[in-house]
Design goal:
The complex is a heterodimer.
Chain A (H helix, E strand, L loop, with lengths): L2 H4 L4 H26 L4 H13 L2 H26 L7 H19 L5 H30 L3 H24 L21 H7 L12 H18 L1 H11 L1 H6 L4 H17 L1 H10 L10 H11 L4 H24 L6 H16 L5 H18 L1
Chain B lengths: L1 H31 L7 H19 L2 H25 L4 H24 L29 H11 L3 H19 L1 H11 L1 H6 L4 H27 L11 H11 L4 H20 L4 E2 L3 E2 L2 H16 L21
Antiparallel strand pairs in B: 1-2
Helix pairs in contact in B: 1-5, 1-6, 1-9, 1-10, 1-11, 2-3, 2-4, 2-9, 2-10, 3-4, 3-9, 6-7, 7-9, 10-11, 10-12, 11-12
The chains are: A mainly alpha, B mainly alpha.
Chain lengths: ~375, ~325
């Protein structure tokens, strides 16, 4: 079986059918796990879908989770187009949140909301960008491996966050490890609050204006990667570094650009979580979203449209997972982390395992069609 | 007083180093064969869970050890199936293993034991305890009993096994024929293939050895260090082990040195909390905890010598036709 022949199939199969099949396999295995712990997969699925999509409040939560995953998913995707595997979304998001908190605590009381909020967004992106730029610089100019460095930077960011919270940002006399509350002006308005002003009544949920920011980020990434000159250079370096180098592009600079944008996108998680929901800096607010971004990007085939869909899928899984864990005693919300891992496994690491089967099916279908004339 | 402090720091350094060392050696064997292993954390975590679950239910140390090694080997085989047989991305596969382990251990723990993801405590008789009870505590006024006795001789069998395995892995890699082949497949798989030795078979063998060692590392956490499994109890140790292996430049003895350094930092961090060091002032405990990660970044950036990875590391091997 030679590779070129084995994997010949039309584009729609490669882009749509294969990812859906891999997702199905992951979900089937997850269903097996649910059976193993003695619950009914179908019952779990129906509670999950109902809890995530069945009412306005659940939908709000689903979209709030999806917002965070769009940011981290885009972050992984942009780095990937530049030929880099950014495993450091967790740290970049943590640092982005730190940027949000520092700015909000410093300027939140002094400036009007219409000025603070754009600055908050800028601070999140800038801090995330900085945290990603260091590993990028080290890879491009000093030859260290970006995967290892970004893993280390995740831990460094977490340690720094703990240190700052414990020693500097925690209000005097407070026992809990979190900063003081931000001024109202530094908080992203929640959607139900905005709706209230328009006379609409929506149930309260953490969904906030960051969703709009996430969709803007999707538009920006699409434009940047496929319409802009800089994006073309980035993709060229990502797919063929040598050729791009001969064509006059500077691969080192492209690494910095790809990781910079990637980090900025991951940093925006801070806007959704810290400015949008918590209203203060907390410990471990990223809660694995950086890693979820890897699954989201793999599922979405590194394309913003796919990433939106995959983020919705994971939003449903997260919100629905919480509901199922309330209803079914033996079911725990860590099931979602398991599903996430299975999706990374089947849609990422083992993405091509089923490709020969589909290629053979397609080939035999074509042959039969040809025989019929 | 000095002898008590030195003895207890030495003892806790060795205790903390043991799981790091076992795990780092596991990573070393896999990576010397050309397969990146980001999944150390997940394998150790799952092994710790398996050891605790089997030992607490079956009331047997051996059962715990076997279960841990079996589970870690199965995860290694999964890694091999994805990246050796199907040439998937080794980093992605490792990340997947970490996620699955982090999730599934809690899911199964809650479903089986209904204690918030913890396993029931393991019987004292089943746990691995020090080989000699004579040196359980350091003795004031006696250097021999404190430093040699408590510091070096008070440990359980896995501690000594881990350090013995450093020599074992070195001997295996440098002095035996399978070891030579294993190293060769990480440097130049095409050459090994041309010599008529199967590249996948060698890499699978390396992954199985890796699984056995990860299993030992995980069982140490629940059979020796803690009395039960609690969610995410590895807490980044797998990544520290990875860092130690890189810091040790993929060689057994330097890797052991790095593990000891990181273990010492960990043991010292607790004692240094709130203590002012002359000339430096009070060092925040987070800074000491972050030091292994920072040192690895600095090493990889080439500021303290070169870190030369096996040449074929991370590259799936495609047999030429």
């Amino acid at each position: 079986m030679s590779n070129a022949q084995a994997f010949q199939m039309p584009r729609w199969m490669d882009l749509v059918l294969l990812p859906l099949w891999n997702l199905l396999v992951a979900l089937l295995v997850a269903g097996g796990v649910v059976l193993l712990i003695g619950e009914s997969p179908l019952q779990a699925l129906s509670i999950l879908l109902n809890g995530a999509l069945g009412n306005a409040r659940g939908l709000g939560y689903t979209l709030y989770y999806a917002t965070t995953f769009i940011f981290t998913g885009l972050a992984v995707a942009v780095a990937f187009h530049g030929g880099l595997f950014n495993i450091g979304g967790e740290g970049q998001a943590t640092f982005g949140g730190l940027g949000v908190a520092l700015l909000a605590l410093w300027l939140g009381h002094r400036l009007p909301a219409w000025l603070v909020l754009p600055l908050v967004v800028l601070a999140a992106a800038l801090f995330g960008m900085l945290w990603a730029a260091v590993p990028a610089y080290l890879q491009a100019w000093r030859g260290s491996h970006i995967v290892i460095t970004t893993i280390m930077f995740n831990f460094l960011a977490a340690s720094l966050n703990v240190y700052l919270l414990v020693n500097w940002l925690r209000p005097a006399g407070s026992m809990s490890v979190e900063s003081s509350n931000f001024a109202d002006g530094a908080r992203m308005p929640a959607l139900h609050q905005l709706a209230e002003k328009l006379g609409l009544e929506l149930p309260s949920s953490p969904l906030n204006l960051s969703l709009v920011l996430a969709l803007l980020a999707c538009w920006f990434v699409t434009w940047f990667l496929w319409k802009s000159r800089a994006g073309y250079a980035l993709r060229a370096v990502g797919s063929a570094p040598q050729a791009a180098h001969y064509a006059g592009m500077n691969p080192r600079l492209q690494v910095l650009i790809a990781m910079g944008i990637s980090g900025a996108l991951a940093g925006l998680v801070g806007v959704n979580e810290i400015s949008g929901v918590q209203g203060k800096l907390t410990l471990d607010f990223v809660a694995g979203a950086g890693f979820t971004g890897i699954a989201v990007s793999l599922m979405g085939r590194n394309h913003p449209l796919g990433i939106i869909l995959a983020s919705l899928l994971f939003g449903v899984l997260y919100q629905g997972g919480v509901e199922v864990s309330f209803e079914l005693p033996r079911f725990s919300r860590e099931m979602v982390v398991t599903v996430q891992g299975l999706i990374v496994l089947f849609a990422g690491a083992m993405a091509m395992v089923s490709a020969p089967m589909f290629a053979r099916l397609y080939a035999s279908f074509k042959r039969r069609e040809a025989a019929r004339g | 007083m000095d002898e008590v402090l030195i003895g207890s720091v030495l003892a806790s350094t060795l205790r903390v180093t043991t799981p790091l060392l076992l795990c780092a050696l596991a990573g070393l064997i896999s990576e010397r064969s050309g397969v990146i292993d980001i999944g150390l954390e997940g394998k150790m975590l799952f092994a710790a869970f398996a050891a605790a679950a089997a030992a607490s239910v079956g009331h047997s140390t051996a059962l715990g050890l076997v279960a841990a090694m079996l589970v870690a080997c199965l995860l290694s085989l999964l890694h091999g199936f994805a990246c050796v047989t199907h040439r998937g991305d080794q980093v992605v596969s490792g990340v997947a293993i970490n996620m699955v382990a982090a999730g599934l251990t809690v899911v199964l723990g809650i479903a089986w034991f209904a204690q918030g993801g913890q396993t029931p405590p393991i019987d004292a008789a089943v746990r691995l305890t020090g080989l000699s009870a004579a040196f359980a505590e350091p003795v004031e006024g006696s250097w021999w009993a404190s430093v040699i006795g408590h510091g070096l001789l008070s440990h359980n069998i896995l501690v000594y096994l881990a350090f013995a395995l450093v020599g074992g892995v070195w001997f295996f890699l440098e002095r035996t024929k399978p070891g030579l082949r294993l190293r060769a497949v990480g440097e130049n798989p095409a050459m090994v293939d041309a010599a008529g030795v199967s590249v996948p078979r060698l890499r699978y063998a390396a992954l199985l050895l890796n699984g056995l060692l990860c299993g030992l590392a995980g069982s140490y956490l629940t059979l020796a260090q803690n009395a039960n499994f609690s969610p995410n109890m590895t807490a980044g140790r797998g990544f520290i082990a990875l860092a130690a292996m890189i810091f040790g430049k993929w060689k057994p003895l330097p890797t052991m040195a790095a593990c000891l350094l990181f273990g010492f930092l960990d043991a010292a961090a607790i004692r240094l909390q709130g203590v002012a060091i002359p000339g430096v002032g009070e060092v925040p405990v987070q800074a000491i905890q972050a030091l292994p990660y920072l040192l690895t970044v600095v090493l990889l950036a080439g500021f303290i010598g070169q870190a030369l990875a096996p040449k074929a590391l991370g590259r799936p091997y495609i047999k030429e036709r």
